[in-house]
Amino acid sequence: MGVQLTLMSALVPNLVPTTDDSFHAPTIMDLFPPVVAFAGTPFTIDRVMMIRLIMTLLLVLCLVLYATRAKLIPGRAQYMLEFGFKFCQESIAEEVIGKEIGRKYTPIITTVFFSVLFMNISGIIPGFNLAGSAKPGFPLLLAVFAWFVFIYAGIRETGVGHFFKSSLFPPGVPWPLYLLLTPIEAISTFIIRPFTLFVRLLANMIAGHFLLALTLSATNYFLFAHLSALSPIGILTFAAAFAFTLFEILVAFLQAYIFAILTAVYVNLSVHAH
Asked: Any stretches that span the bilayer, and where are they (predicted)?
């Protein structure tokens, strides 16, 4: 029993009580864990930041190993990476932006996709159990990055004047209506776009964390910490936790795809503006 309790507690760090029989549901404070290093400095590191650093190093390591050990006949890991690269190029960048211009922005789209994917997938890794994208910093950084990318792409491909004119002054509209439409277009293009990218990713990963943490906490409570006639409920909560884990894997890939394809869509709107 002690081994089982220890294992379940490791799967849900800082969420499951091990010293009493009361049930402790996950709270918003799970997203703000104690500082582990450099407290009181601009370089404060907590568990979420540690997860981000580890997943970033893991992504860089995968790419370095691919660059230095790629073979003509790929192995399983190399094939998976190359499939991801090809998917980002053909199914996102070139499909949305067009082959000629899409190739220019394939590295950016690929970087966005894999960065979001690696941060998201940490939410189902035992010992981490929290996505690096479940706190505002990372989603906000990527949203601002996407904002710079589509503005840069529009200016680079169409020129400064044409980009801002097409973005703020829709063609075919009577001039008096620009007093109303121009502020709306400015807010929609330069504020709403990055804000929706930020909120969509953050909200989905927070929701996934709470659902998974809640089912694992309930499993620990009913099966190990509070043995009673209600213990069989723990089997149901364990099944739910397993189902949510599979669902979170799907969400991790789906949110990476959505973030990457919306970035490509915004680039396409900028470079093909009329």
From this structure: 49-68, 105-125, 137-155, 175-192, 223-243, 249-269
pTM value is: 0.86
Contact yes or no for 113/257 (Cβ under 8 A): yes
Q: Which of 70, 97, 128 is the last residue of a domain?
A: 70
pLDDT tens for 32-58 read: 888 888 888 878 899 899 999 999 999
Q: For residue 84, report the phi and psi dihedrals to the nearest 5 degrees.
A: -65, -45
Angle between helices 137-158 and 193-220 (to 10 degrees): 150
Task: List the one residue out of 192, 193, 190, 242 whose CA is nearest residue 215.
Answer: 242
Based on the structure, what is the number of domains in the chain?
2
16 and 99 inside one domain: no
CA distance 242 to 254: 19
Q: Which domain holds residue 61?
A: 1-70
Question: Across-strand partners of 46?
Answer: 35
